[in-house]
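Field log, afternoon session.

UNIT: design team B
ACTIVITY: writing a sequence onto a fixed backbone
BACKBONE:
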């Protein structure tokens, strides 16, 4: 009989369709987020699964999944997967790097600009009927051009942001677990600095590093205190990198000018302290969300699953599995 795969969410039917040529596709309706028992029940039946960052897959979820051989994550970040637990069981895990790099870098720039120039705050002001005429000193923001950009996590997306920054005549500083080769630094006109220098000198700091135990709350009260009170902070990586309570406190008390967050520690819940602030831009985890890119992510995940399960035309192609050590590299978001 044909191998079985589980597709955890409605994606793009015309792309997922390709799985039907090789597999029986198991539908499990109503698997709500982080529902470990439902995920375990779905995985128990199948050889492979196409999942998103909404599905947390660890030891418990795979305990009874005797046939499971591959998990294809639709997304570049994979902190939803316990890579060690999967590896210990010989289950291949894959993600979708590269295809979302430019789209995500675009959005990082959009958020940084929105925070610096108070775009969403200004729109709320206008929509609330508070606009009384051109206000010379109203809603003044900070410039991007000519300022210093700080990039924490200089992987593919970080490099995409650095590339865009050169068009804005920004000085680019970065910090990364491992320093880039000199020719790459030159290509992006980027200067390596230590974390404290990055915090102190960035006019605009963007977070694009992977989330792991090592990066949990790396931007905490102490880190925020090292930033300039005129600076902005943008997070398009994972919510848990930032101590949200400390950030809300800094924004409320004038120790940081503004922030933009696309990701949240308890998403989809958003800390009410953040919602109460005017000087913050809040978006619902859409950085990779152009139609073309979301389609490309699903297509790559489908290819990965087919390759990992060794069927069809992609059978001989290595599925670019996630290596356990990669979780600690800043190379992946
Ligand atoms: C989205 O956050 C992703 O990791 O692709
Ligand atoms: C994240 O994975 C990146 O590509 O920077």
């Amino acid at each position: 009989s044909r191998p079985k795969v589980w597709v955890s969410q409605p994606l793009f039917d015309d792309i997922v369709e390709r799985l039907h040529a090789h597999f029986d596709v198991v539908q499990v309706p109503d698997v709500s987020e982080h529902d470990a028992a439902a995920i375990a029940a779905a995985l128990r039946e199948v050889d492979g699964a196409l999942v998103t960052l909404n599905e947390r897959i660890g030891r418990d979820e795979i305990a009874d999944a005797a046939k499971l051989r591959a998990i294809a994550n639709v997304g570049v970040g994979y902190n939803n997967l316990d890579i060690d637990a999967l590896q210990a069981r010989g289950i291949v895990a894959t993600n979708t790097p590269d295809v979302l790099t430019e789209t995500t870098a675009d959005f990082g720039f959009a958020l940084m600009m929105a925070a610096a120039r108070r775009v969403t705050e200004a729109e709320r002001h206008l929509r609330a009927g508070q606009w009384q005429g051109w206000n010379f000193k109203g809603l003044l923001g900070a410039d991007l051009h000519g300022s210093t950009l700080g990039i924490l996590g200089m992987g593919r997306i970080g490099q995409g942001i650095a590339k865009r920054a050169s068009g804005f005549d920004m000085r680019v500083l970065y910090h990364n677990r491992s320093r880039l080769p000199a020719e790459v630094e030159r290509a992006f006109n980027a200067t390596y600095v230590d974390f404290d220098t990055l915090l102190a000198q960035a006019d605009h700091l963007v977070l694009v590093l992977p989330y792991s135990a090592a990066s949990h709350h790396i931007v905490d009260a102490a880190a925020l205190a090292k930033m300039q009170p005129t600076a902005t902070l943008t997070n398009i990586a994972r919510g848990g990198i930032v101590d949200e309570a400390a950030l809300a406190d800094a924004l409320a008390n004038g120790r940081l000018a503004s922030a933009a967050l696309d990701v949240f520690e308890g998403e989809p819940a958003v800390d009410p302290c953040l919602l109460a602030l005017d000087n913050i831009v809040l978006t619902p985890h859409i950085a990779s969300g152009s139609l073309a890119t979301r389609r490309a992510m699903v297509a790559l995940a489908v290819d990965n699953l087919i390759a990992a399960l060794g069927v069809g035309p992609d059978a001989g192609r290595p599925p670019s599995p996630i290596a356990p050590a990669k979780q600690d590299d800043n190379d992946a978001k």
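LOG NOTE: The chain has two domains: 4-99+291-328, 101-282.
NEXT ACTIVITY: expression trials, pending approval
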